[in-house]
Amino acid sequence: MVFSQVSASNQNYLKAVWTLGEWSDEAVTATTVAAKVGVRLSTASDAIRRLAEQGYLAHAPYGAVALTDKGLAVALAMVRRHRLIEAFLVETLGYRADQVHEEAEVLEHAVSDFMIERIDAQLGRPERDPHGDPIPRADGSVPAFGALLLAEAARSASNRGALRVERIADDDPELVRFLAERGIVYGAEVVLREPPPYSEAVALSLRGAREEVSFGMQAARAVWVAALDEGAPKR
């Protein structure tokens, strides 16, 4: 497997470049990569330069960072490992969704290809992880994803019907836990409500429940939703 020829540190850089571009149209730069990986800019810049020299990245000085085909293969393999491990920890070992990210960050570098294949088969070849993120397939293809940020959906009166939570951003485990404690998890069915006057809050209720839940736009920008009639993806 091509990623086995790449150090764990470099695997993290390549995965970071891919995930930074997964949910944003903004250019990926050395600065954003450094923040994602959690290192100094100078450290990230050196790593990006080396990976570009090795053919894994395309990067012009002071410009955007992009994966080459070679780098993309490694990045997708690592994202696949990470998300399958997260799914395994939740479905098989009873972890909560807010507990799995850091565990998967360690385990993704340690388990064998055979174990990843067995996990995939055991779980029924899921297309989403516990947060709703698409799990890349073994052939490198990525399941289609169609949803709207809750923060955007809340601005439109046409979205007052029942919605399904399609994704929870997992960058902040505390926010994942905050939302889960209010029933806002991947797969939950919700109905948007009118927010309080002069408020930036988003108000909603779980489908079939009377109690309303409200939270600010920071949390609403971490949730993706879709109309219920659009068809649920394979879980």
Automatic annotation (TrEMBL):
Record-level GO BP terms: negative regulation of DNA-templated transcription
SMART domains hit by this protein: HTH_DTXR (SM00529)
SUPFAM superfamilies: C-terminal domain of transcriptional repressors, Iron-dependent repressor protein, dimerization domain, Winged helix' DNA-binding domain
Taxonomic superkingdom: Bacteria
Entry-linked InterPro entries: DtxR_MntR_Metal-Reg, Fe-transptr_FeoA-like, Fe_dep_repressor, Fe_dep_repressor_sf, FeoA_core_dom, HTH_DTXR, Iron_dep_repressor, Transcriptional_repressor_C
Presence of keyword Cell inner membrane: no
Keyword list, A-Z: Activator, Cytoplasm, DNA-binding, Iron, Manganese, Repressor, Transcription, Transcription regulation
GO MF annotation terms: DNA binding; DNA-binding transcription factor activity; protein dimerization activity; transition metal ion binding
Residues of the HTH dtxR-type domain: 1-68
Pfam family, one: Fe_dep_repress
This protein's GO CC annotations: cytoplasm
Compartments it resides in: Cytoplasm
Keyword Glycoprotein belongs to the record: no
UniProt family annotation: Belongs to the DtxR/MntR family.
Quaternary context: Homodimer.
Name of the protein this chain belongs to: Manganese transport regulator
